[in-house]
Amino acid sequence: MATAKAFVLVEVAVGRTREVAAALQQLPGVKSVDPVTGPYDIIAVIEGKNLNEIGDLVTSRIHPIPGISRTVTCLAI
Asked: 61 pLDDT exceeds 90?
């Protein structure tokens, strides 16, 4: 059962929101993906067993997705 949760705020290159959202939805640990308006293009909710698993998911699985310009990870407390 997951004990760590985070919100990942994603900035995406122009015109790539749909493909980035689709790629995010395929990743294990990603619970929801919502395109949004404002300074970020997508907010993803992710869960893992611990903070290390959250960090690994962001750095090794989310960051390499083509079209992602920048992310900000907000841990739920």
From this structure: yes
Q: Which pLDDT score is estimated for 2?
A: 56
Asked if 29 and 48 count as a contact pair (C-beta separation under 8 A), the reply is yes
Compute the mean pLDDT over every residue in the chain, rounded to the nearest whole number: 96
Torsion over CA: 64, 19, 43, 70 (sign): positive
Domain count, the chain: 1
CATH number of domain containing 22 = 3.30.70.920
Distance CA 1, CA 7 (A): 18
The beta-strand segments (E) located in the chain are 4-12, 30-35, 42-48, 68-75
pTM over 0.85: yes
Residues of the domain holding 26: 4-75
